[in-house]
Fold:
Amino acid sequence: MGIVKQQDIEKAFFKAFSFGGLMHLCFDWLQHKYDLGFYCSKEQEEKPKQSMPEKRQHYYDVTMPEEIYKLADAFDDSVIQYTESSLLDEISTNIDRLNGKEQERYIYSLLKPFKEYSDNLNPIEVIKQLRGEVDGIMGIKDTQKDLKMWENMPQDEQLYNVNGEPCGTVQEEVEACKHFIEEYKYRIERAEYKADKYREIVNSITDTKEKTVEHCFDNLLQVVYMYATRLDALLLEKGINMMWYQEESGIYILTRRDITLLQEYCGSYKLARKYIDEALPQTEPQQMTKLVVDDNLPSKITQKEVECYEKAINSGMAEKTEDGYKWLYNNGSKASLAYFLYKLFNPNGTGQIPYQRLNKLWNVTRLDSALSQTLNAKHPQRWRTQIESLFTN
Structure:
């Protein structure tokens, strides 16, 4: 049986994340607004910025945002947001119809549309390449070997090309190697800075009612995290390790597994653990598959928590009790409490939430389920804005 072609649901969903799609436009606009474009060197970054031609500036100020809003309104995220997911049903059917290399290639195709997302938000592969840890790509590692070789030669020795013509000295080669090593280091720092900046941008959103490119971008990030987690669970149930496919492809949509979310999709905590332990191919030494469980998290309340809880108390959203805290906001709604804790621990879907400890601290149960229902709502709840204001003041 040949490769299964992407069907209509997959095509429509992946189009938003592929090159030229909605997420690409968001990245382009954000890079322009927040000066996150690529620089080949630190010297280039520090050069005075030239003003953009008027027509080009109008494109970023007016035309591009309008196009982003139009695409965002047309984007159907319901195929992944609800328990019954037509996108996952389609993917599951396709996987079951394939075997061997055909199945592998299909799974890679499920990651491929998110290459730009991976490079910008989870630049693991980008940094590996710059460090020289990817075969066939020159980076710091190989350049340091060249530098050591040149430094062991007479520095004033003349070098010649294949035609016997002078082409510099050993000392010049030494300086060139040092220069490239510094450039690789700069580009690693730049990749890390951009990833942090993108998360900072979405964390700074305060008014969820206002339509902005930042808001559209934040919605897309939440969709990607939901897709990544649910795809991982689907593949685990079929005995397939998505983390291995991420490492092989260099496209990372999920950097760690949250067992509290996986157990909802896999059926139970024990099943999720069993599926992870048995998933193939195995990854070396499980660097990308560390489970997020309470045993790995601080067992005591942190100073950051205390400060945020005090803000909630001062705003009338919560109160201190003899054995912990009590949530008052929104009639004590567990959904709003779960969202408050989500903004504290895991605003971008990459943090770790100690649910078991928090359930006891706030005298509630199943905060994980309450959060899942909150984030999966088709339209953001109005009360989110007031909670988010606690993290911007």
Notes: The mean pLDDT is 86.
